[in-house]
Amino acid sequence: MIEHRDFQNKDWEERWKVGNTRWDTGRVDPALRELIEEKNFELAKGNGFVPGCGRGYDVFYLAQKGYTVTGLDVSETACKTASDLRDSLGINEDQAKFIAEDFYTFKVPDAKYQVVYDYQFFTAMKPVLRGKWGERCAELVSKGGHLITLMYPFAYKDATPPYPITEEAYHEVLDANFDLVHIDRNPKKEPPRMDKNAIAVWKRK
User: Fold this and answer.
1) Please, which residues bridge with residue 22 across strands?
2) Distance CA 143, CA 205 (A)
3) Interatomic CA distance for residues 54 and 120, integer angstroms
4) How are the residues of the chain apportioned to helix, strand and coil, as percentages rounded to the nearest 5?
5) Half-sphere exposure of 174 (CA within 13 A, CB side)
6) Across the chain, which distance is largest between two alpha carbons, in Å?
7) Which residues pair with 115 in a beta bridge?
8) DSSP H or E stretch at residue 141
9) Name one GO biological process term (predicted).
10) Tens of pLDDT along 128-164?
């Protein structure tokens, strides 16, 4: 039997404790900024959610855009680090909070979330668990709400995770509950990540 925890094939808490966070670019991905600030894509308003939030850059960004945002990470150290950074930035805890819980089992609020941003969280789990991820996203996003997926990487570069993905992999697990309403296959990029990527927006049916 496959457990949802199997996607954690590395000890994320230990990585955070020793500072082994080489995936951390220290900023919001430019593709998300472009989607909101330059493409002016009209996202649903309300509550936001960022799984695998790390230091919380995306949480802070969405909070500054008017959302009440929850960042989730399996690592307590990551959430503590993000909370400290939030406080240093003067962002109110009511606008940006962090929870160290399991993506698949934490209690979803009754209002659900109107915007969920998945930045490589999908690629951090084994492909066999992707169907479970799609089902959970359907539970998280309210009707008419949006799921943003930053798709990367499309090929192996190092030892996994992240596992490489395809657009079809997202369609396979999302199409039953979401409509693809926007995709940019050549979004803005900045060093150190200049490889092929794409950003997509899915609307909850």
Assistant:
1) none
2) 6
3) 11
4) 35, 25, 45
5) 24
6) 45
7) 48, 146
8) strand 141-151
9) methylation
10) 889 999 999 999 999 999 999 999 888 766 666 788 8
Among 137, 131, 166, smallest CA distance to 51 is for 137
Going along the chain from its start, the domains and CATH numbers come out as 26-204 (3.40.50.150)
Which residue type is seen at 48? G
Check: CB of residue 62 under 8 Å from CB of residue 69.
Answer: yes
For 160, residues 6+ apart whose C-beta sits below 8 A from its C-beta are: 9
Q: What is each CA distance from 145 to 62, 63, 107, 137, 204, in whole angstroms?
A: 15, 17, 18, 11, 5
Q: Which two tokens stand for residue 57?
A: 């850059």
* CA end-to-end distance (rounded Å), the chain: 30
pTM here?
A: 0.91
